[in-house]
């Protein structure tokens, strides 16, 4: 058991050591006090190896087992973070990176792949809007995929293109309160083109947040500079968003 404890302690020592080495070799963590970067890892290392020293000094199971459980707790937290980030799903279904892995049936797999390929971070964009529109009409857009992902979730995660979101809404997607999700994202991110596409697809512009505030208020409450930088034209009210450029 002592070897297991030593192995677990060595693993727990790696992150603080790497952090201190990066700080010392000119790769500091931005916006964090260097004293904090140096102090916290030292405290972490001291706590870990004091527990190991206790296990060495007192070779009794009633001492070593609780300490081993205590040392394993950070690993459980790291495993939970990996799970939340989809690491294990990526191993089980590696085609999730292309979107296909979220669904089992072919029409839905093809639609998901076309949406995920339409990533706003790609230059040039790989969007095929006419293909997505045709696939949306052929697929069951209300199907929920693995990890609870809907087609609208995939569309928003890849940048929320108005053409993609509009196609899904026109095809009848309603799963997961998608109307609220679409207008919330459009207003929160200050995307006038997306707001117009969402409303043109039939979403009620008067939808409200759970607290009763209209989603459109979220857009008008943003700083004027944000709206100008997003639209390159004055956008004073949601009504002008829907009207489009004059």
Question: What does the model show?
Answer:
This protein is mostly helical and 246 residues long. Helix 1 packs antiparallel against helix 2, helix 2 runs antiparallel to helix 3 (61-84) and helix 9 packs antiparallel against helix 10 (192-200). The chain has 13 helices and no strands. It has helices at residues 2-24, 34-57, 61-84, 87-92, 106-117, 129-138, 151-157, 162-170, 178-188, 192-200, 215-220, 224-231, 238-243. It folds into two domains: 2-85, no CATH class; 92-243, Serine Threonine Protein Phosphatase 5, Tetratricopeptide repeat (Alpha Horseshoe), CATH 1.25.40. The relative contact order is 0.06.
Give a short overview.
The protein has helices at 2-24, 34-57, 61-84, 87-92, 106-117, 129-138, 151-157, 162-170, 178-188, 192-200, 215-220, 224-231, 238-243.
């Amino acid at each position: 058991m002592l070897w297991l404890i030593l192995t677990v302690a060595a693993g727990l020592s790696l992150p603080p050591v790497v952090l201190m080495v990066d700080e010392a070799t000119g790769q500091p963590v931005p916006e964090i006090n260097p004293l904090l970067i140096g102090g916290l890892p030292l405290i972490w290392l001291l706590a870990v190896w004091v527990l190991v020293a206790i296990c060495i000094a007192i070779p009794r199971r009633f001492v070593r087992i609780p300490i081993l459980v205590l040392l394993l707790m950070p690993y459980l937290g790291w495993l939970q973070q990996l799970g939340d980030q989809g690491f294990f799903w990526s191993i089980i279904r590696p085609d999730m990176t292309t979107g296909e892995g979220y669904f089992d049936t072919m029409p839905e797999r093809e639609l998901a792949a076309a949406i995920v390929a339409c990533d706003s971070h790609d230059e040039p964009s790989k969007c095929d809007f006419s293909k997505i529109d045709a696939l949306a009409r052929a697929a069951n857009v209300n199907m929920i995929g693995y990890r609870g992902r809907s087609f609208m979730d995939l569309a928003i995660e890849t940048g929320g293109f108005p053409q993609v979101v509009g196609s899904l809404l026109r095809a009848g997607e309603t799963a997961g309160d998608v109307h609220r999700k679409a207008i919330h994202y459009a207003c929160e991110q200050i995307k006038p083109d997306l707001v117009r596409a969402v409303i043109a697809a039939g979403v009620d512009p008067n939808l409200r947040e759970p607290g009763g505030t209209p989603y459109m208020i979220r857009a008008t409450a943003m700083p004027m500079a944000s709206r100008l930088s997003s639209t390159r034209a004055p956008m004073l009210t949601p009504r002008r968003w829907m009207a489009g450029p004059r």
